[in-house]
From TrEMBL, chain B:
Gene3D superfamilies: Alpha-helical ferredoxin. Keywords: Iron, Iron-sulfur, Metal-binding. This is 4Fe-4S ferredoxin-type domain-containing protein. It comes from Kosmotoga arenicorallina. Pfam families: Fer4_22. It comes from the Bacteria.
Amino acid sequence: MVMLVVNAFESIRTKLLEVITESPTIKTFVLDCGGDFEFKTGQFVEVGLAGVGEGPFTPSCSHYTKNPIEITIMKTGYMTEKIHQIRKGAEVILRGPYGNGYPLEKFEGKHILIVGGGVGLAPLRSLFLTLVHDIERYNGITVCFGARSPEDLIYKEQLKEWSKIKGVNLNLSVDKVPKGQKWSGNVGVVTTLLKPLELDVENTIAAVCGPPIMMKFTSLSLLEKGIAPSNLYLSMESKMYCGVGLCRHCTIEHYFVCKDGPVFTYDQFENPEAIWA
Amino acid sequence: MLCYPDEFISYLLETGKTVYAPFKHGDEYFFEILTEENKDAVSLGGFRPADPIKMLLFPARVELLDIPKFPETIVLGVNNCDLQAVGFLDKALLGEYPDPYYSEIRKRTLLIGVDCKEVKESCHCILQGYKPYPESVYDLAISEVGGMFVLKSGSEKGEGLLEDFSKGHSVMNDIPDIDRVIETNRELIKRELVELNSGWSIASHTEERKLEPSQEMVDSCIECGGCNFVCPTCYCFMLNDESRKAHFSKVRSWDACQLKGYARVAGGGNPRAALYERFNHRYSCKFTYTIRQFGISACTGCGRCIDVCPANIDIRNAARKLTIKK
């Protein structure tokens, strides 16, 4: 097991084994940590390039996969632009894991509804694969994933496999189908997948991750369906430097997203509007 | 323990430690390194220095990997507003994952508090639930009575220093009634503060207060971030990687929540893009969030944000509109 270092800002050096192109803007990086890297699904790590920068990302593999681990990153700023350019064999720095993951013990015996949008599928894939590992502990899994367009939908090949797993109900949607792209499934924002779902809401746990606007409407839609706010899990992200509850940049109300999250339940917030801001 | 001020100050120099003390320049006080040459010019017991004590303990820009070995340091003449700010920073920065730089500096620093003998117009510790004399956090506290120092230790570190000092120097045991004299002096300063702040209500530093800043106040803000930088409890920082020839370094530098880019994420999303939201966030952070996080508010009433503000925004005017949330 990789030991946690005393200086909270010291990283371990990992080796990039493989880069998987998921979409025009999203890649998955397979990292050799040099030993088992223990984390709980939903926790995050600070990943980056030495001398360039680092950022918070959630591993996208099951937490039973301890080495190598996979991290899915969207190209959206300076550091992610640089990390998208690196090749097999490159050195990637990593520290963590940080924060609280999903409290899986509370999920036992329940039906799990996983709703994701865009690159928000990354932490949810980790959750899904972790749940599937012990699928008999849960009362079925419904997955609703959305993307802007068919080519923006990530993990395509794996999703095909997921739909074959007994106890798994997979639903996919894209916002629109641009000319030249093929799509035979549902078209519309991800919330359109939720409407027809028949759920035993009393015994359903929902886990949501995606862009702020998607999280907002998905949450509102799920609450309307009758999911209890305390059963609605949100995987949050905000501006973050330190990852360990010091720099204060990630605070939402009095919560540190890094330390108190990144997984929250809806009822934890006084003013839900603060979540989507 | 009683002693002569000159003797005590000379002793501090003899310890070989780095000693900071307040000196007056113009109308303000500043912490400077004490030397044989300037030791007669030390001004103890004035109102708090212009720069917050975090300048010494939590510098504006430092490298976090390869922490240097800091010299043993003594800060002489710390007002209670700064002592309480250090108490706050200890709670915020020395938790589960301690800030490695702060914790090293803090370990090697001895704080000598002092009773305030004067107040500044912006001073309002009493409104924030504090008093103008060392209440806690100090290693040693000085009250000046009749040209003598009355020394009291507040920690093992302070006790050790007192013991060492008393070995080779003429010290006297406390004389009867000395506490009463100290108390009288303190009462006079407290009364001055109460009078100065009579337009505002006294609050507690452990009770949540909820604030809606007035639009007028927000409109006058020019977003310079000065209030953040001079605040002794504001410790928000950025962490950036910088390339060096042979290695790389993580650089920690102060940030200010009043600046627009503070919470902006890659891709451009900004949860507090409007000034009102940032303004509101600052007060919520000071009077609500930090109480939930660390049990105490993040304002010690030093008033530096009032002095520094080009728009004359007075935190007490905002605080006047604070209602105690039950």
